C-alpha cells in the first residue's frame, strides 16, 4: 500500500530520469518535494509522465536541501524558470551520474560549491540568471564531458580560472553580465570546439589574448562592455567561421587590423566606443555578408573607403564621432539594403552624394556636424521611406527643397545651423507625420506657412 502510493507520486517526477534503486532515494525525493512552499500549485497536480525527460516545472518555490545528495542515480536535474531560493548545497557533488544540471532563472544565491567538479558526467551546466556570487571554481576544469556552460546574469566576481581551458568538450561558454575581473585566460584558446563565447558585461581587463585565434569553430564572440585594452590581436583574423564580433565599450587602441577582412562569414561587426585609430581598412570590402557595421566613437581618420560600397548586404552603418574626412563616397548609394546611416560628428566635406536617392530602404540618415557645404540634392526626395533627416550643423547652402513635402514618412527633420536661404516651402504642410522640424540658425526668410498655426519652428 505504502509502496504503491510512493510510486504513483514518483510517476509525476518526470524530470528525474532515474531508476529508484532504493527506498532511501525515493524518501529523499519526497522529503524534498514536501519542502516546496506552494504544494497546492495547480501545476503540481498536472504533472504528467512525459517523453521529455527534462520537463520543466514552473513556479515552484523552496530550496534545494542537502538531502539531494542522496539521489546518487539522478541523471537530469532541471528546475529552470522557477523561484527556487537558497544556496546550492555542496552535497550536489554526490550526484555523480548527473548529466544535466539546469537551474537557470531562479533565486539561488551564494557560491557554486567546488564539489561541482565531481560531476564528471555533466554535459550541461546551466546556472544563468540567479543571484549566485563568489568566484568560478577552478574544479569546473575537471568536467571534461561538459558541452554547455551557462553562468550568465549572476554576480560572480574574481578572475576566470585558467583551468577552464581543460574542458575540451565545451561547445558553448556564456558568462556575460557578471562582475568578473582580471585577464581573459589564454587557455580559453584551448577550447577548440567552442562556438559561441560570451564574456560581455564584466570587468575584464588587459589584452584580448591572441590565443582566441585558435578557436576555429567560433561563430559568436562577445567581449563588449569590459575594460579590455591594447590592439585587436592579429590572430582573430583566423576566425573564418565568425558571424558575430562585438568588442565595443572597451579601451582597445591601435589601428583596425587588415586581417579582419578574412572573416568572410561576418555579418555583425561592432567595434564602437573604443580608442581605435588610423584608417578604416579597405579590406572590409571582403566582408560580403556584413549586415551591421558600427565603428562609431573611436579616433578613426582618413576618408570613408569607397570599398564599403561593395557591402551589398549592409543594413546598418554607423561611423559617427570619429575624425573621418574627405567627401562621402558616392558608391555608398549602391548599398541597396541600407536602412540606417549615421556619419555625424566627423570632418566630412563636399556634397551629400545624389546617389543616395537610390537607397529606397533608407529610413534614418544622420549627417550632422560635418562640413557638407553643398546644396542638399533633390534626389533625397526619392527616399520614400525616410523617417529621420538630420543634417544639422553643417554649412549646407541653397533652399529647402520643395519636394521634401513628398516624403510622407518623414517624422524628424533637423537642419539647423546651416546656410540655407529662401523661404520654407508650403509643401512641408503635407508632412502629416512630422514630429520635429528644426530649422534654427539658417538664413531663412519669409512667413512660416499657415498650416503650422502657432507651432514654433525652432
Ligand atoms: C540523506 O543524506 C543526509 C545527509 O546529507 C542524511 O542525514 C540522511 O539520512 C540521508 N537519507 C535520507 C533518506 O534523507
Ligand atoms: C491545499 O489544499 C488543501 C485541500 O485542497 C487545503 O486543505 C489546504 O489548506 C491548502 N493549502 C494551502 C497552503 O493553500
Ligand atoms: C506563481 O505563484 C504565485 C504565488 O506563489 C502566484 O501568485 C502566481 O500567479 C503563479 N504564477 C503562475 C504562472 O502560476
Ligand atoms: C564522457 O563521454 C563519453 C562519450 O560520450 C562517455 O563514454 C564517457 O562515459 C563520459 N564520461 C563520463 C565520466 O561520464
Ligand atoms: C555573496 O552574497 C552573500 C549574500 O547573498 C554575501 O553575504 C557574501 O558576502 C557574498 N560573497 C561574495 C564573495 O561576494
Ligand atoms: C553583487 O554583489 C555586490 C557586492 O557583493 C552587491 O553590492 C550587489 O548588489 C550585487 N548585485 C546583484 C545583482 O546581486
Ligand atoms: C564587483 O566586484 C568588486 C570586487 O572585485 C566589488 O568591489 C564591486 O562592488 C562589485 N560590483 C558589483 C556591481 O557587483
Ligand atoms: C565552420 O563552419 C562549418 C559549417 O558552418 C563547419 O563545417 C566547419 O567545420 C567549421 N569550422 C571551420 C574551421 O571552418
Ligand atoms: C528619382 O526617382 C525618379 C523616378 O523614380 C527618377 O526618374 C530619378 O532619376 C530619381 N532621381 C535620382 C537622383 O535618383
Ligand atoms: C513631388 O511633389 C510635387 C508636387 O508637390 C510633384 O509635382 C512632383 O512630381 C513630386 N516629385 C516626385 C519625385 O514624386
Ligand atoms: C500636397 O499633396 C497634395 C496631394 O498629394 C498635392 O496635390 C499638393 O500639391 C501638395 N501640396 C504642396 C504644397 O506640395
Ligand atoms: C554652420 C555650421 O554650424 N557649420 C558647422 C558644420 O559642422 C562643422 C563640424 O561640426 C562645424 O565646424 C561647423 O561650424
TrEMBL record:
The keyword tRNA processing does not apply. Its EC number is 2.7.11.1. Residues 1-21 form the signal peptide. Pfam families: LRR_1, LRR_14, LRRNT_2. The keyword Acetylation does not apply. It catalyses: L-threonyl-[protein] + ATP = O-phospho-L-threonyl-[protein] + ADP + H(+); L-seryl-[protein] + ATP = O-phospho-L-seryl-[protein] + ADP + H(+). Residues 139-274 form the Disease resistance R13L4/SHOC-2-like LRR domain. This is non-specific serine/threonine protein kinase.
